């Protein structure tokens, strides 16, 4: 069985569009599979996730997708 993970599409990511520069996708992830080191920085995918899609739906820039890890 393949694991899934969130992938950040950096060419679309616009952290300045998120409230206070805090990535809405990272904040929505119940497993903390996305990490943002500082406000206004793009998040990084950290580990396989459960592919719930919460981060995909939360991202205002449509910069997150779920892919096979």
Q: What does this 3D model show about the protein?
A:
The chain is of the alpha+beta class. The chain has one domain (4-68): Alpha-Beta Plaits, CATH 3.30.70. Helix content is 14%, strand content 20%. It has 2 helices and 4 strands. It has helices at 24-28, 54-58, and strands spanning 4-8, 34-35, 44-45, 64-68. The chain has a two-stranded antiparallel ribbon. Strands 2-3 form a two-stranded antiparallel ribbon. Strand 2 and strand 3 form a beta hairpin.
Strand percentage lies at 15-25%
Helicity level: 10-25%
CATH topology: Alpha-Beta Plaits
| Integer tally of domains | 1
Count of discrete alpha- or pi-helical segments spanning 4 or more residues: 2
- Helix-strand string: EHEEHE
Uncertain runs are: none
pLDDT averaged residue by residue = 93
Class of secondary structure makeup: alpha+beta
Looking at the overall shape, the CATH architecture is 2-Layer Sandwich
CATH class: Alpha Beta
Overall outline? globular
How many beta-strand elements?
A: 4
What attributes does this structure have?
69 residues; alpha+beta; Alpha-Beta Plaits; two-stranded antiparallel ribbon; 2 helices; 4 strands; 14% helix; globular
Task: Give the topology, please.
Elements: E1 4-8, H1 24-28, E2 34-35, E3 44-45, H2 54-58, E4 64-68
Antiparallel strand pairs: 1-4, 2-3
Short account of what is shown:
The chain is 14% helix and 20% strand. The chain has two helices and four strands.
